C-alpha cells in the first residue's frame, strides 16, 4: 500500500519515477482535438516542470493539415508573429506508452503572458470543474466511440509494408470509396467477426488498461469493420483526456497491424455514421449522484421526470436551451453534418425522453437503471468531436441551467404534438448561431474562445466552398 502511494506522480517524486528514463514524450491538444507533441530530453523536461517551456502558438492557428487559418484570431498570438506559448506539463497525466517501449508521457496545458490560453480545451474544462467544485459538485462522464477500420492501402495493393509514402501514392490514384473495410457486412455485437483481426482487437482493450484509457465495453457495431468502445466513466476532465488518448492508442496500434482506423463522423456514403455519445451526471464531492431523486415525485410535470431530482431537471433545461447554439462543439467539421441526417441513427432535432434513443438527449434513470447511475446520454456528437470542447460545452450548459434554475422548455419527444426544433444541419449555419451576439455560447464561454473557434470553423467552410468535388 505504501509503495502504491509513492507511485502517485507529484512534482516532488517525478524525478524518482523517471530514474531509468532518458527521454519523455509530451503533447497538447489543438483546436481539432488532435494531440501535438514531441520527445524531450529528460533533464530538459524536469527543468520545465515549474515554469514550463516554449511551444509555438501556431498550435491554435492552423488546421489539421497545418494550413494557417484565413482569419487571424487574437488567441493564437498571430499579431506577435506566432511567438511561443508556455507549455506546462500536467504531472497528474503521467502514464507510459506501452507500444513505444514504455516511454513516459505527459499532457500539457498552455499559458500566454501568465494567463491561460483561451483556446486550450484542457484548461477550459478544468476551469468549469473548479467552478462547480466551489458549490460542492463534481461531474462524471463516459464516452462511447464508434470508428470504422480499413485495410491500409499501399502502392501495390494491400501489402504489409505500411510505408506512409506508399499509402499516399495509393490514395492519389484511387478514390477513397475503393478502400476495403476490415471486415465485410454489418453485424453488431458479433462474437466471431473480431477473430479475423483478433490480435488487433484484443490489443486495443489490453493496451487501454495499461495506458489508462480503460474500456468498459468493447464490441463490433453497425457497419462493416466498425468497432465501438465505451470508455469507463471517470471525472469529466479525465474522461476528455482519455478520449484523446484512446484515439492515439488505436491509431498507433493500427500502424502495427496495417489497419487504418477512422474517426470521421461519416466515412462512407450509404452507411450510418460513427457516433461519440456522451454520458454526463453530477455528484457531490463524496461521489453521490445528485440527479437521483430520493423518492418518486407524484407531482412531476411529466412521468419521465418522476425519478429525476430538481438539480437534474435544471441541468436538463440547461442542455435543451443551449445545445442548438453550441453545435460546432459537438459537430465540428463539414463531414459531421453528413452523419446528422434523418434515418441514419443520429438525432436531427432537439428533444429528450426517458430511455428514448430516438431523442437527442436520453434520460437514464430508475426504474430502468439504479439511482446512482442516473445521467443524461447526449447522442448528438460524432466520433470526430473535440472531447474537451464537447464535454466543457455540456457541463457549462447544464450548470447554467442549475444556476438559473431553468424550466424544461419542451415535453418528452414521445409526448409532443408539435414538431421538435431542428438542430443546425450544416457547419456554416451552426457557426453563425454559435458566434451570434445573442448566442447562449457567449454566456458559457469567453468571447476570445468563441472568436477563435469560429475562425477555425470558418476556415474549414471556406476551404470546402473552394473545393471542386466529384459531386
Task: Describe the structure in your own words.
The structure is a single chain. The protein is α+β, with helices and mostly antiparallel strands. The protein has two domains: about 15-115, Glutamine synthetase, N-terminal domain (Ubiquitin-like (UB roll)); about 130-465, 2-Layer Sandwich (Creatine Kinase, Chain A, domain 2), CATH 3.30.590.10. The chain is built from 14 helices and 15 strands. The chain has helices at about 1-5, 15, 40-45, 120-135, 165-175, 200-210, 235-255, 310-320, 325-330, 335-340, 385-405, 425-435, 440-445, 445-465, and strands at about 25-30, 35-40, 55, 85-95, 105-110, 115, 135-150, 215-220, 225-230, 235, 260, 275-285, 350-355, 360-365, 375-380. The strands form two sheets. Strands 7, 8, 9, 10, 11, 12, 13, 14 and 15 form a nine-stranded mixed sheet that branches. A hairpin with a 2-residue loop joins strand 5 (about 105-110) and strand 6 (about 115). It is globular. Residues about 1-5 have low confidence and may be disordered. It comes from Exophiala xenobiotica. Keywords: ATP-binding, Ligase, Nucleotide-binding.
Kindly name the structural category. Answer: alpha+beta
Q: Tell me about the biggest sheet?
A: 9 strands, mixed
Terminal residue distance: 62 Å
> Could you tell me the radius of gyration in angstroms?
22 Å
- Mean pLDDT metric: 90
Amino acid at each position: 500500500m505504501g509503495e502504491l502511494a509513492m507511485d502517485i506522480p507529484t512534482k516532488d517524486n517525478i524525478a524518482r519515477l523517471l530514474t531509468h528514463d532518458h527521454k519523455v514524450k509530451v503533447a497538447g491538444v489543438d483546436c481539432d482535438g488532435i494531440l501535438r507533441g514531441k520527445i524531450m530530453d529528460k533533464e530538459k523536461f524536469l527543468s520545465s516542470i515549474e515554469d514550463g517551456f516554449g511551444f509555438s502558438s501556431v498550435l491554435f492557428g492552423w488546421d489539421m493539415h497545418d494550413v494557417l487559418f484565413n482569419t487571424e484570431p487574437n488567441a493564437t498570438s498571430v499579431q506577435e508573429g506566432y511567438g511561443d506559448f508556455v507549455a506546462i506539463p500536467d504531472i497528474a497525466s503521467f502514464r507510459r506508452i506501452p507500444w513505444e517501449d514504455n516511454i513516459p508521457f505527459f499532457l500539457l496545458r498552455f499559458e500566454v503572458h501568465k494567463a491561460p490560453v483561451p483556446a486550450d480545451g484542457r484548461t477550459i474544462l478544468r476551469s468549469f470543474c473548479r467552478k462547480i467544485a466551489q458549490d460542492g459538485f463534481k461531474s462524471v462522464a463516459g464516452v462511447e466511440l464508434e470508428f470504422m477500420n480499413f485495410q491500409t492501402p499501399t502502392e501495390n495493393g494491400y501489402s504489409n509494408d505500411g510505408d506512409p509514402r506508399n499509402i499516399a501514392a495509393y490514395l492519389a490514384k484511387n478514390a477513397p470509396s475503393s478502400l476495403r473495410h476490415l471486415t465485410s457486412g454489418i453485424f453488431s455485437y458479433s462474437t466471431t467477426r473480431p477473430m479475423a483481426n483478433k490480435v488487433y482487437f484484443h490489443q486495443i482493450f489490453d493496451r487501454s488498461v495499461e495506458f489508462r484509457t480503460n474500456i468498459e465495453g468493447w464490441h463490433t457495431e453497425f457497419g462493416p469493420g466498425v468497432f465501438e468502445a465505451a470508455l469507463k466513466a471517470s471525472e469529466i476532465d479525465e474522461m476528455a483526456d482519455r478520449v484523446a488518448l484512446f484515439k492515439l492508442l488505436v491509431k498507433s496500434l493500427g500502424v502495427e497491424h496495417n489497419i487504418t482506423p477512422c474517426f470521421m463522423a461519416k466515412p462512407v456514403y450509404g452507411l450510418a455514421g460513427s457516433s461519440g455519445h456522451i454520458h454526463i451526471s453530477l455528484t457531490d464531492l463524496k461521489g453521490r449522484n445528485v440527479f437521483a431523486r430520493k423518492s418518486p415525485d407524484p407531482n412531476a410535470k411529466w412521468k419521465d421526470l418522476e425519478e429525476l431530482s430538481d438539480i437534474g431537471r435544471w441541468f436538463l433545461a440547461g442542455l435543451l436551451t443551449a445545445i442548438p447554439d453550441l453545435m460546432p462543439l459537438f459537430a465540428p467539421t463539414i463531414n459531421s453534418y453528413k452523419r446528422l441526417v434523418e434515418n441514419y441513427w443520429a438525432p436531427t432535432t432537439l428533444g429528450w425522453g426517458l430511455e428514448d434513443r430516438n431523442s437527442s438527449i436520453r434520460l437514464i434513470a430508475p426504474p430502468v437503471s439504479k439511482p446512482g447511475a442516473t445521467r443524461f446520454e447526449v447522442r448528438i456528437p460524432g466520433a470526430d468531436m473535440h472531447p474537451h470542447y464537447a464535454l466543457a460545452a455540456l457541463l457549462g450548459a447544464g450548470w447554467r441551467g442549475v444556476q438559473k434554475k431553468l424550466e424544461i422548455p419542451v415535453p418528452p419527444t414521445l409526448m409532443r404534438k408539435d414538431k421538435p426544433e431542428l438542430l443546425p444541419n450544416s457547419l456554416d449555419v451552426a457557426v453563425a448561431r454559435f458566434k451570434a451576439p445573442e448566442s447562449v455560447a457567449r454566456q458559457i464561454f469567453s468571447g476570445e474562445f468563441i472568436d477563435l473557434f469560429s475562425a477555425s470553423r470558418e476556415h474549414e467552410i471556406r476551404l470546402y466552398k473552394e473545393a471542386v468535388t466529384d459531386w
